[in-house]
Amino acid sequence: MKLDVGVLHLPKAGATAAEYEDSFDYSAGSGIAAVSDGASNNFESRRWANLLVHAFVHRSPTDFTPPKVLDWVDTVAAEWSESIPWQDLTVFEEAKAALGSAATLVGLKFGSSSLRRSEGAWRCLAIGDSCLFQITRGQLVKSLPIAKSADFDIHPPLLSTRPENSKLITDRLITERGRWRTGDTFYLLTDAIAAWFLLEFERGGSPWVTLASLDQQSFASFVDDKRARKLMRNDDVTVVTLSVRTRSGAHRRQP
Amino acid sequence: MQPLTWRGRVPTLWVVARMGNMMASYVAEISRDRPGCILFLLDQSLSMGEPFAGETKTSKAVTLADAINKLLMSLVLRCTQNVNEGPRNYFDIGVMGYGDSWERGPGPCLGGALGGRDLVSVKDLADNYVRVEERTRMVSDGAGGLVETKVKFPVWFDPVAEDGTPMREAIQLARDILRLWIVEHRRSYPPIVINITDGEPNDDPTEAARKLMDLETEDGSVLLYNLHLSGLAASPLLFPATSSGLPDEFARMLFQMSSPVPSQIQKELRLEGYSIESGAKGFVFNSDAVALIQFLDIGTRLVLDSGLGERGPR
């Protein structure tokens, strides 16, 4: 098994590239990837999203049970707090920073023992509305944590730098296990493009085919068009694609 | 305090434009290119120097100044996102006072370097407060209890209680200011005017209010919300949908000159657990200090949520 990883991303229209507040990280060799969407109305949420995906990929929680995940979030939150130059903040920055930051997270981890095989297990951790979609033999077989386009909401549960806030959403942590086989494709998407993906699927389309055909340049045109036609909310968008191939690099022949 | 219950030929192009507005009003995204505008009109008449019913110390004017200073702080915070970036200019903000009509008339009442300016940006606010006070407040100790802590409280303007209630002139002034603002911001979310008063105006402001609410951007008409501060120990009446339960002509007049709450905001209010009827107006009668703060919070925060399209914990 070999993972091919592709990334497409774009900031919200009207924002600069430096203001892009989604984040992603992956290790193809370790079979792990994560996407996070920093909540814009919080302080230093890009920093928080970056820390979450980096920590997930390089030292993910030992298991995905709520207590372990919350302990893990606390250690990442401590890094966020240590990285803030508290002494240099204005009165407003200080008050905003005291409220903390918040972000979604969707992380996918392939079983380590299965990397040499042609099929195996995966585990996913998701909080909020960044989504995982699994495509097997041209079919959408898994949609986490949201399965319907109508279920996107402007108040998703978020991981917070304030432990007391993260504790409040413990029951909304989604952990799931599944099976992969060579030829599968996994998509990790932030909410605006995930909502488009599900809407397109509900209309009978195969949005994964569209995404697979795009490079960074055509992706920008594609997103601009969907935003202009009100088919996609104006927000940062991120697509991380993980294609499971044989070690020789070819897809397994589909039955 | 009880929990609040929120209960010839017309040119074709003009028709199309109006239909467009009817189909999708109050949905414009608020951005630095298309900022929103919030204008406060504050009654500064002599009676504002009296306390709320059941209170003896703090005057309505002081409570109102605190509430507005706190709201300005929350607007700056909402636009503050990163270290060393400064707040993003998502809004133009004005604070107008009306009282003392025979001497200087309604006018801007921010102090310090912002004195005399009708509208200022969020960055202007962040850079030009008059002073920072240290206040105490109770915050969660993380273990189910409360602990007293000191917070910094920027002040942009101080309470005033003078003579007269020239509300009509204040609304006319708001119209003059916003007419110019709209010329520059045709595609923005419509301006929101929040008028806070504790008594009957010198002159009937109804016609001036109608003209103000006739102003529109491509996204809808100016929203005029009215809040009446009470000196009586009566329950606040919040966001009524009809004037039938209102006690007198003055209350009915304020009801008439209040804009309906946009349907998107009604939806958000219901999601927050308020029972609010369809057709509810942006109007509160007999408000106490608690209802005042809630009104200011929801009157602005829900617009920010929907206009900025940003997500966060509820």
Can you describe this structure in just a few lines?
The complex is a heterodimer of chains A (about 260) and B (about 325). Chain A is of the alpha+beta class.
Count of helices of chain B? 8
Q: Name the shape of chain B in a single word.
A: globular
Strand elements of chain A, count = 12
Principal-axes geometry of chain A comes out as globular
Runs of chain B in which pLDDT lies below 50 for 5 or more consecutive residues are 1-22
The Cα radius of gyration of chain A reads 18 Å
Strands side by side in the biggest sheet of chain A: 1-12-11-7-8
Helix content of chain A: 25-40%
**Terminus-to-terminus distance of chain A:** 18 Å
* Main structural class of chain B: alpha/beta
Q: Main beta sheet of chain A, described? A: 5 strands, antiparallel
The class by helix and strand makeup of chain A works out as alpha+beta
Alpha plus pi helix count of chain A = 7
Element order of chain B: H for helix, E for strand: HEHEEEHEEHEHEEEEHHEH
Query: Biggest sheet of chain B, in brief?
Result: 8 strands, mixed
Number of strands of chain B: 12
Mean pLDDT of chain B: 84
Q: Could you tell me the strand content of chain A as a percent range?
A: 25-35%
Summarize model confidence as the mean pLDDT of chain A. Answer: 92
Q: Could you tell me the radius of gyration of chain B in angstroms? A: 19 Å
